[in-house]
Every structure is written in structure tokens, then in C-alpha cells.
């Protein structure tokens, strides 16, 4: 923009009874007319940079997000909330293009809009945000609702109190405060109801506590008067929140700077917001109960699945789960053109062990062997299972013959380390096992039955060759 044209344009802009801000995308500077400087409390003369706006907070009223002056020029935002030293101001925003390099916005203080700000639209926004609220953003949306009602009612504070589980104390869970007002939320935690008897007497009777001037409270409200004065409150308006006709909390607004004669429209507005917040809290409560029930069902199903797939004695996988897993791993290894190994173990002379040591000792031995085998299965996909009686099976997907042989060595070392006495064995005075194993590069035609058959033959080979051995079998 040339110097002459700049002067001409700004002579016109300063005559306009609107706040005008122009942005030159070539120089990346802003120019403000006098109304804009007054509105934004900016004293700089001439063109200014982004830094001048650092102390100014603008919020998109549609979603309550903070926006920068750059975003205001580059977006289609039509209304903003200006947070300033006194009360927040709601401004209409209009965009226009001056020439190729200069764009302009106007900020209009509509007194009617600031007073009303289309309350129906506010209620619609609050309702939309809270109608299907989730646990993770309930706080943000309640804070937004409190800020909206506090702004519309020209209050200095707005808040939500909820009763604690003991129903004898209350806690300030959410609070909005106007600029320059001291927040009280932190000191209003777990407040006993008995400290505010008159307040709760009125709230329980009418679910409404409306005081235009706290000095006019009756003598029996001395406790409330002391509390209100401590918070510098001059006027207060509270609406009760109920679940199933029971008072569970309240929302309210305070005026600190000046007294306020609450009007009927103020009452209607706070009741509407209270109803929306109340419904949102009910929904959250119902959802929490539903989620708890669902989690209980999930846990029950997990427990049932575990019971269905776990051997009751040894607490490792049972035959049912072994069969299903082997079929699944054969398919998976076939897809990746990888081998799968299968090991079948049998405790040597276990019948003699049971007959001579008793079934209780026999069960203990089975548990120790099962735990040892399961402990060796460290990779994802490896599975140790009770195959039947004193037999155990181990599935090793993506495992070749050499790795499988090494694994059988580990099994024998582990069983030996258990040092379970077996004086009635023909091969050792400690409990031992015989192992049959096989490895197969599976294809789509491979079956679990074939793999089990080969591993079984390898196990019989280990037994026939003296037991306490690990053998493989080749067709």
C-alpha cells in the first residue's frame, strides 16, 4: 500500500465507528484505527507486528479455543470472545479485502449481542457438547458451559459443586472466574454440609438459592453470610442438581464487584444450563455403570475362556486349546513359508510313581513338570500343553530342526534340575521324561493330525530305545 493511499484509507477508517485492523501480507504488519487500539488496549502508533497482540486473548466462541490474530485473518471466524481486564466482550467479526496485499477485519461490539449473545445459540452449543459427553472431555465441556453462563449472567464466578460419596460433604469440582477475580475452588473441597445449614435447608426445599444482597440474609444464615463475605460475594444464585429426585449438587453464579438483582431471565438461563449439565452428569454416571458392567462381563468371559482352555490340575493349556493352536500355527507358518516343530513328552514310569508315592504326590509331580515346560516357552506363539495323563506337548512355530533339538536338551536339563525322587524307575532314581519331536516345513496341505502322528512315533522310538531320551522320526 503506497504512503498516500495508506493515509487516505486510514483517514476513512478512523471515521468509522468500528474497530478496524488491516494486515499487509507483503510487510507482515498490522495497522489499527483508534477504535481498535482502544478496544484492544494498544498504544502503538503506525504499523505493528504480531508481538503487539501477545497479551491479548481471543477465543473462538464456537469451540472456546484460543486463536491468534493471524488465525483471525486467515479463518472464517465470525464471533470472538475478547478476554480483557474487565468483563469479557463478545465481538462480531467481518472480513474484507482492500487490495491485492491488504486484507481487513472489523470488530463490532454489539451491545445486544454482548448482553444476550443469542442465548438460544449458546444453549444449543452447550447442549451439543454435553449431549454425548465422554469421560475424557467432561471437564473441558463443563468449564465451557460455566464460562458461557457466567458471561451471559454478568457474573464474576460460576461453578459446579457435587456431593461426595458420604453425602455429608460437598466439593467444588469446576469453576470459572472472570478476569481479576480470585478463584475459590481449591479451598472449597470436602466442605461439610453442616457448615452451611440455611443454604442446604433452602436448596432441599426449593432447589433454588437466590440472594440479590447477602446483607439481607436472615439471622439464621449467619454461617452463610460469613462464608460469602470471606469470598467477597455480594450476590449469589444457585440451582440444585438432582438424580432421581435426590439433591446431588448445584451450579451457581456469584457477583463480587457489584450487587446484582437476578432477573427472571437470569433464573431461566441458569436453570437451562443446570439441566444440561445435570443430564450430562447422569449420562456419565450411567456410562460408568455400563462400562463397569461390560468390564465385569469381559472379565467373566476371559475367566470362562481361561477355564475352557486351561488344564485344571497343571494350569497350563489343555488338549482342547492345544488342538486349536496347532491348527492355527500350521496355517500361519504355511502363509510365511516357515517350519513348525512339535514336541510330545511322556513322564517315564509314571504309573509306578503314582502307585508307590500316591496320587497326591503324582499330581504334585505333574504340576512341577508342567511349570518347567511352560517356563521354557518364552517366545510369542510357543505353547506348552497337557496332552493327556502324564503326556505333555509343546508347539514351536517358526522353529527349525536344530532349534528344536536344542529345545529338547533344555527340557531334559530342566526336568533333571527338579530332582524329583523316583526310586521305582528303571532308568534313574530321579523322575525323567522321554521326548519325541518333529519339524516340518508346512504347506497348505499340512495337517495337525499328520504332525502329531510323526511326533508320536518319535516318542515311541525314545521309549523303545531305553527312555529318558529325545528322538525324532523321519518317514
Plain-language structure description:
- There is one protein chain.
- The chain is α+β, with helices and mostly antiparallel strands and 475 residues long.
- It is 42% helix and 24% strand.
- The chain has helices spanning 3-13, 34-40, 69-74, 111-116, 119-131, 138-152, 197-206, 222-230, 264-309, 319-335, 350-357, 359-376, 401-418, 448-464, and strands at residues 19-24, 29-32, 57-60, 65-67, 79-83, 89-97, 102-109, 157-163, 169-177, 191-192, 208-211, 235-243, 246-255, 339-347, 383-388, 391-397, 433-441, 470-472.
- β15 (383-388) and β16 form a beta hairpin.
- The protein is elongated and about 110 Å long.
- The mean pLDDT is 88.
Topology:
Blueprint: H1 3-13, E1 19-24, E2 29-32, H2 34-40, E3 57-60, E4 65-67, H3 69-74, E5 79-83, E6 89-97, E7 102-109, H4 111-116, H5 119-131, H6 138-152, E8 157-163, E9 169-177, E10 191-192, H7 197-206, E11 208-211, H8 222-230, E12 235-243, E13 246-255, H9 264-309, H10 319-335, E14 339-347, H11 350-357, H12 359-376, E15 383-388, E16 391-397, H13 401-418, E17 433-441, H14 448-464, E18 470-472
Parallel strand pairs: 17-18
Antiparallel strand pairs: 1-2, 1-7, 3-4, 3-5, 5-6, 6-7, 8-9, 8-13, 9-10, 11-12, 12-13, 14-16, 14-17, 15-16
